[in-house]
Write a structure and sequence with these properties.
This protein is α+β, with helices and mostly antiparallel strands and about 500 residues long. The chain is built from 16 helices and eleven strands.
């Protein structure tokens, strides 16, 4: 706890729920739909809510205004990260989104942007188009297995993009392990879920002690984390060194080509950065993008009138004689609105990763001590009824005005990729290439309807998510069938 004397201004802390001695708000931290609870608290305490958990200060940001003013305008001071003890057990030291704002982090981001920035996207398009065509053909053969086919396609695509390894069986094995790592992180990082995050000494409790089963679970995920962050890079690098590479350029191939000789003093650090960048390019990107795709499909299946309107636009602009091309997307305002609304309606990350302040801050008459963790409530922003009337409903037309995209409405890109200097550098690949291409292909080529049970009765669709850092729609059943024999022929 910092001394009160540091508050030279004599200002109050931001408002929040009453705190208990020593433990603060520990027992009030919501575990079910916390983003909704924090949004409800905002109605009582204002758009910034102050909490303390065993000395860790937390400020929840529930509005565009507070997020922009604190995380963007004050980014010089609010771009550090909150390292949780569970991250040690999960062995996430390789993941640069969790690193503090240091030269080492900047080197990671520089290399990531250099190889996966907006000007680099065309390099990877052949891999995406090749894998997507295989995926579309698989859907034609098995219209009931959408979720598994989509997971496999996206994982294989990211593995080829990152490592250039075109071995489906080998890639599939790593995909399963990487998903387990993402799931472990997503469950463990919710504030208040693991007491070890508030009492770091608990991480030294042996796994065999009664009640310490949580440690055994986290350590098992940690072993997978170490494997999926290192093994693919090692094998891919060996292939590059031997000249045995995929005909298409991969991220690892470009990173390895940029490495200095092994005798160079900077080699070890540069190789570590290359390995970490390749790992985050796959592990972080695949799960969040998959959740977005699942969200888009259940939205279309639940709203056939939206699907029909989007198909009509595709037929008018693209026609039925060819597959959609990237350049078509800008001429499809309603399809773009569908994609925007799906990422708003289904908020993949209800909270962005916490930012931490290096120095004391003053905001709107409140004192915010150094070391405070800022938790941006992206869900609250994307479901603000002042900006998005009837926010729980799926209404793509809200993004249109006079037949064109409405530039006056808050774009979901404001929040879904993070904030300020910690904005996700992989957003160009996820948004412009994969999500846009996926949406055009699925809308243009397929009818998407609720699945049916053994009696042929339609199974009602219900949109539900778990209370995790990465929210994926609960399993649902849909049928994905070509719109016609002609559309099936386009796929081949």
């Amino acid at each position: 706890m910092r001394k009160a004397s540091q508050n030279a201004w004599g200002l109050p802390l931001p408002p929040g729920p009453p705190r208990m001695p020593l433990v603060g708000n520990l027992f009030q931290m919501p575990q079910v739909d916390p983003w909704i609870v924090y949004n409800d608290w905002a109605k009582k305490y204002g758009d910034i809510t102050y909490l303390e958990v065993l000395g860790q200060r937390i400020v929840v940001l529930n509005s565009v205004k507070s997020i922009a003013n604190i995380l963007e305008k004050k980014a010089v001071n609010t771009s550090e990260r909150l390292w949780m003890p569970v991250f040690d057990l999960l062995k996430l030291d390789w993941s640069f989104p969790f690193m503090n704002y240091t030269p080492f982090w900047k080197a990671h981001r520089k290399h990531f942007h250099q190889h996966l920035g907006p000007m680099q996207m065309e390099i990877y398009r052949p891999i995406i188009e090749d894998q997507t065509l295989k995926y579309l053909r698989a859907l034609v053969k098995n219209p009931h297995d959408f979720r598994l086919q989509t997971r496999s396609w996206l994982g294989l695509t990211f593995m080829r993009l990152s490592y250039g390894i075109n071995d489906a069986q080998w890639n599939e094995n790593l995909i399963v392990k990487a998903q387990a790592v993402n799931q472990g992180f997503s469950e463990a990082a919710i504030a208040g879920r693991y007491l070890v995050n508030s009492i770091p000494l608990l991480r030294h409790v042996p796994a065999w002690v009664p009640g310490a089963g949580w440690r055994k679970r986290l350590e098992a995920v940690g072993e997978l984390s170490r494997e999926v962050s290192r093994v693919p890079f090692k094998q891919a690098k060996e292939q590059v060194d031997l000249g045995k590479v995929d005909e298409d350029i991969s991220l690892v191939r470009r990173l390895v080509d940029d490495l200095p000789p092994e005798t160079h003093p900077s080699y070890e650090e540069r190789a570590t950065i290359a390995r970490n960048v390749a790992a985050i390019g796959y592990i972080a990107g695949a799960d969040t993008t998959l959740s977005a795709l699942y969200g888009l499909i259940i939205a279309l299946a639940m709203h056939p009138e939206v699907m029909a309107k989007a198909q009509n636009e595709m037929d008018t602009v693209v026609g039925a004689d060819r597959l959609p091309q990237p350049e078509d997307y800008e001429r499809l305002p309603f399809v773009q609105a569908v994609v925007k609304e799906s990422t708003r309606w289904h908020t993949v990350g209800p909270f962005a990763l916490p930012h931490v302040s290096k120095k004391d801050e003053v905001y709107e008459g409140y004192f915010i001590p150094a070391g405070t963790a800022f938790l941006p409530n992206t869900w609250a922003v994307m479901h603000d009824p002042e900006r998005f009337p009837d926010p729980m409903s799926f209404k793509p037309e809200r993004y249109l005005k006079d037949g064109k995209l409405n530039k006056e409405l808050l774009d979901p890109e404001f929040g879904i990729f993070g904030y300020g200097r910690r904005m996700c550098p992989g957003r160009f690949l996820a948004k412009d290439i994969i999500l846009a291409h996926f949406a055009m292909c699925m809308i243009s080529l397929f009818n998407i309807k609720p699945g049916r049970d053994e009696h042929g009765k339609e199974i009602p669709l219900e949109y539900k998510v778990a209370s995790e850092v990465i929210c994926t729609p609960a399993p649902y059943q849909v049928e994905v069938r070509p719109r016609s024999a002609k559309h099936a022929t386009l796929i081949g």
